[in-house]
């Protein structure tokens, strides 16, 4: 009895320690966004800004490209998410349910593509965008992100788990492939669609390397790209930590909101990796 | 099975359905790889098209410069391999052990508020790598939070991002051992250079990455832990096994597949570190945070040597593909 009590106490102590380790950086980020520069430099650990100033937030909106980056991020994220969800569910449906020659080869190719590490595609993607005349444009920023192999795989796995009998009734009623997909199967795929939407949203909102090789014009920067420029690029001069932390904070908020609302989907998604192996 | 008639219209529909994804993936994944393979055999400088006759053909020159030709190209590449190897060597075990430890604690049935702790540990994994790099840059600044904590314990923290000294070098120095094996070496680096250990600057990046990835892997371990049959644990307890024995002989063997997955995913991921390097150090100080991924980017987009940059990409590609194949093969063996 005493032992279990002691071990429970120890368990909580460890948990609280790690919770601090994992969350305190965010506390520091929030607190220092509202500090003066000298206060941030003198008391970086303090969770309470004194005095509380919103100078850096004002400067983020008036003195940096932040509003442009935000607009671009919203545009890219919305278009990419819609595209990914639509194209991935169409392709996933075809690979799972439609019988057509070349299907097996396509799926094998898809698995191979999933193994291609994104980082080694940096120069290659630039080459293609340049060759197609899409470099430094919204199309270059958006179109390459519209389809992802993992999303197609997720949808195919889901459709594989739907019983065939569902479609048979509709087929007897004379529904064509598109009707079947749009009105019968897709509405059933809601959980998979939500997962995919969240994955696509966070993925494209946080996407950084692709923006690095697809655009150069600051008017086309998304938030991560603008932020990186603010820190290490031409704008990086001086410390200005409250400003940088504030901008990073604003970039994190949308994902944080989505995370809090759809927490169980995130967790399920990560756990799925462990089951599949 | 696939008779005509009722399924007869599926052929065009099938291709129509996969067409958008197929075109985009073909255009922006498959085609790029082939184009880059060509460019890696040239000395294209980014001007005009790489497919005209004016572009000097280099054959395997870009590759031999990385491995056999003496010079800066090889030295930088080997330095980046060394740096990344130390990074992998520290990040993978630490994140795996931390993730497993957290999962074991959070999985305890008696604890309250488990949901909160799981969320807290997992949250860093979903945030932007760039945004979080900014936060860690501030924390590891000279007068930043990390050094403030260290000073509480009477320690003077280093100037993290301008300290190129390697940990192993520091350790040897503190033992009074002066540099040795500085005369000989392989691939353009002396044995002493190979032995440096991760630099102080790299340690800051390592701590950031461990912090962001442990949560994801914790969730994987958690899922696996929930599949461990309760009877197994009970049987062990009846047999008089203590907590540690239970963990070693009952729980860990059950977690083998997940551990294996976490380690290989970690290996594949750590060879791709890029965003954090770009934001936090750009390969500095003294090239001790240079990694192959960042080097290939820098070589192409800053030095305008696209041929060498692409060649570095392919070598990195090869490293990662080998690790992926290893993972798939061992996973399949396990399944069958």
TrEMBL record, chain A:
Native source organism of the sequence: Paractinoplanes abujensis
Annotated ABC transmembrane type-1 domain residues: 70-262
Location in the cell: Cell membrane
Record protein name field: Multiple sugar transport system permease protein
Superkingdom of the source species: Bacteria
UniProt entry keywords in alphabetical sequence: Cell membrane, Membrane, Sugar transport, Transmembrane, Transmembrane helix, Transport
Transmembrane segments: 9-28, 74-95, 107-129, 141-159, 180-201, 245-267
Homology family: Belongs to the binding-protein-dependent transport system permease family.
GO cellular component: plasma membrane
CDD domains according to UniProt: TM_PBP2
InterPro entries: MetI-like (IPR000515), MetI-like_sf (IPR035906)
PANTHER family, per the entry: ABC TRANSPORTER PERMEASE PROTEIN MG189-RELATED, ABC TRANSPORTER PERMEASE PROTEIN MG189-RELATED-RELATED
Gene3D superfamilies per record: MetI-like
GO BP annotations, alphabetical order: transmembrane transport
Membrane topology (UniProt): Multi-pass membrane protein
Pfam short name (any one): BPD_transp_1
TrEMBL record, chain B:
SUPFAM superfamilies: MetI-like
PROSITE patterns recorded: ABC_TM1
Transmembrane intervals: 15-39, 84-106, 126-155, 198-225, 255-274, 306-326
Keyword Transport: yes
GO biological process: transmembrane transport
Name recorded for this polypeptide: Multiple sugar transport system permease protein
Membrane topology: Multi-pass membrane protein
A Gene Ontology cellular-component term: plasma membrane
Top-level division of the source organism's lineage: Bacteria
Keywords: Cell membrane, Membrane, Sugar transport, Transmembrane, Transmembrane helix, Transport
Phylogenetic lineage: Bacteria, Bacillati, Actinomycetota, Actinomycetes, Micromonosporales
Organism: Paractinoplanes abujensis
Every ABC transmembrane type-1 domain range: 81-327
UniProt-annotated location(s): Cell membrane
Family to which the UniProt record says this protein belongs: Belongs to the binding-protein-dependent transport system permease family.
């Amino acid at each position: 009895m005493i032992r279990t009590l002691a071990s429970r106490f120890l368990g909580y102590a460890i948990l609280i320690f790690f919770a601090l380790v994992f969350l305190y950086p965010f506390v520091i980020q929030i607190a220092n966004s509202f500090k003066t520069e000298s206060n941030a430099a003198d008391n970086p650990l303090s969770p309470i800004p004194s005095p509380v100033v919103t100078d850096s937030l004002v400067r983020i909106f008036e003195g940096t490209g932040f509003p442009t980056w935000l607009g671009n991020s919203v545009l890219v994220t919305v278009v990419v998410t819609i595209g990914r969800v639509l194209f991935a569910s169409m392709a996933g449906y075809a690979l799972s349910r439609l019988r057509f020659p070349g299907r097996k080869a396509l799926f094998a190719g898809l698995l191979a593509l999933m193994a291609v590490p994104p980082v080694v595609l940096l120069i290659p993607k630039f080459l293609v965008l340049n060759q197609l005349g899409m470099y430094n444009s919204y199309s270059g920023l958006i179109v390459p992100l519209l389809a992802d192999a993992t999303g197609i795989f997720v949808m195919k796995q889901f459709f594989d788990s739907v019983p065939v009998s569902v479609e048979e009734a509709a087929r007897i009623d004379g529904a064509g492939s598109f009707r079947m997909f749009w009105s019968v199967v897709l509405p059933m795929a809601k959980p998979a669609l939500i997962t995919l939407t969240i994955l696509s949203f966070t993925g494209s909102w946080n996407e950084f390397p692709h923006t690095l090789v697809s655009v150069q014009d600051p008017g086309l920067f998304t938030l991560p790209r603008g932020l990186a420029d603010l820190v290490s690029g031409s704008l990086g001069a001086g410390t200005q930590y409250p400003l940088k932390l504030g901008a990073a904070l604003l970039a994190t908020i949308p994902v944080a909101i989505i995370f809090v609302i759809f927490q169980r989907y995130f967790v399920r998604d990560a756990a799925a990796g462990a089951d599949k192996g | 099975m696939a008779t005509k008639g009722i399924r007869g219209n599926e052929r065009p529909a099938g291709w129509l359905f996969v067409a958008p994804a197929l075109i985009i993936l073909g255009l922006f994944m498959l085609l790029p790889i082939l184009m880059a393979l060509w460019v890696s055999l040239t000395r294209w400088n980014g001007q005009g098209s790489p497919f005209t006759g004016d572009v000097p053909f280099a054959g395997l020159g870009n590759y031999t410069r990385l491995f056999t030709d003496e010079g800066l190209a090889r030295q930088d590449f080997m330095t980046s391999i060394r740096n990344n190897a130390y990074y992998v060597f520290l990040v993978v075990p630490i994140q795996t052990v931390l993730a497993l430890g957290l999962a074991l604690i959070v999985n305890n049935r008696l604890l309250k508020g488990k949901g909160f702790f799981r969320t807290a540990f997992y949250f860093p994994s979903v945030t932007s790598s760039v945004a979080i790099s900014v936060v860690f840059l501030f924390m590891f600044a000279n007068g930043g939070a990390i050094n403030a904590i260290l000073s509480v314990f009477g320690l003077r923290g280093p100037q993290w991002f301008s300290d190129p000294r390697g940990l192993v070098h520091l350790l040897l120095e503190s033992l009074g051992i002066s540099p040795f094996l500085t005369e000989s070496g392989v691939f353009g680096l002396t044995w002493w250079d190979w032995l440096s250990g991760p630099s102080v600057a790299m340690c800051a990046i390592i701590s950031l990455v461990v912090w962001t990835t442990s949560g994801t892997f914790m969730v994987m371990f958690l899922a696996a832990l929930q599949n461990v049959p309760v009877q197994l644990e009970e049987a062990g307890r009846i047999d008089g096994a203590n907590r540690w024995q239970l963990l070693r002989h009952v729980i860990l063997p059950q977690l083998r597949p997940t551990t294996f997955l976490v380690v290989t995913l970690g290996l594949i991921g750590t060879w791709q570190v890029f965003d954090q390097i770009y934001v936090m150090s750009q390969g500095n100080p003294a090239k001790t945070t240079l990694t192959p991924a960042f080097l290939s980017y820098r070589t192409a987009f800053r030095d305008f040597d696209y041929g060498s940059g692409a060649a570095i990409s392919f070598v990195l590609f090869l490293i990662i593909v080998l690790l992926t194949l290893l993972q798939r093969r061992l996973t399949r063996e396990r399944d069958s």
